[in-house]
Fold:
Amino acid sequence: MISLEVKNLSVQYITDAGVALQAVEGLSFSLEQGRSLGLVGESGCGKTTVMLSLMRILPEAGRIVDGQMLFDGRDLLQISESEIQAVRWKDIAMVFQGAMNALNPVRTVESQIVEALQLHKIVNNKKDARQRAGELLELVGITASRGKQYPHQFSGGMRQRAVIAMALACNPRILIADEPTTALDVMIQAQIIELLEKLQRDLNLSLLIVTHDLGVVAEMCDDVLVMYGGTVAEHADSDTIFNDPQHPYTQRLLKAFPDIAEPGSELASISGNPPRLDDLPPGCRFEPRCHLSGRYPLCKSELPPLVEIAPGHLVACHLVKGISPLSIGERAEGEGNPS
Structure:
């Protein structure tokens, strides 16, 4: 069963001068109940804009100019503010990046969870809210009595767990996690990943993981959507993305990440930076940085369509049918044969 379906989402930011900057263009994906989708790409590729759009909490300059976001047959872009408030946290909840910033430093952790429970009328009175807050803390591996403490008395990993507990307060069906392991050491990262996986199984959650960390994606995600320049570069199940990547950007992302199966293997960087919103290239958004595009004029002039090259495997690249089926490590700089 599909929990959430996004169709042709386009988002702009309006500058003080009235110029519309295209942050996301024509984005489509679906999230099935109980499955996890990784939304990956470098900073500036549009991941956060997508996440904020789903909750309808874009900054004032943001505008959703096209598309649909279907949840239980309703388009979340067409319902009123009061209706979307009823959806937030009760149906779709979010774990924001930076747990310390997500918690009020002058209030106990328990009181912040209690407030969320009472605000959304999950419990009838404060006593029940405190009991439920303790249960939520226990659910994420924190002793209930620790809820009387303040955020600064928690370790980084405990703060992240507390934020997850708050997000689960209203029993949501979808949990969006924005860089859930950022700023945590390796051991704590592993614990948070294990926790999210356990919660997903036990609560039948749908997870949307927004991250640049391919290790997190490999560990947690059933499906992967690779974004670049506000558009979809590649979309497939996790095994396909990691074992048979077809978009040059996906290939380079993977090559830039250490492979534990090949310790000591050479890493490849991606030269340059993602495109600026006020200076998007006329053709493929990745073309200025692509190691395969030098001889192909079409890459410079036309934005490639998103094409299904195999069941469930979507790629937006003019060259995908002409690239020889070699592993990432075997592809030399500039290699590729146009079809």
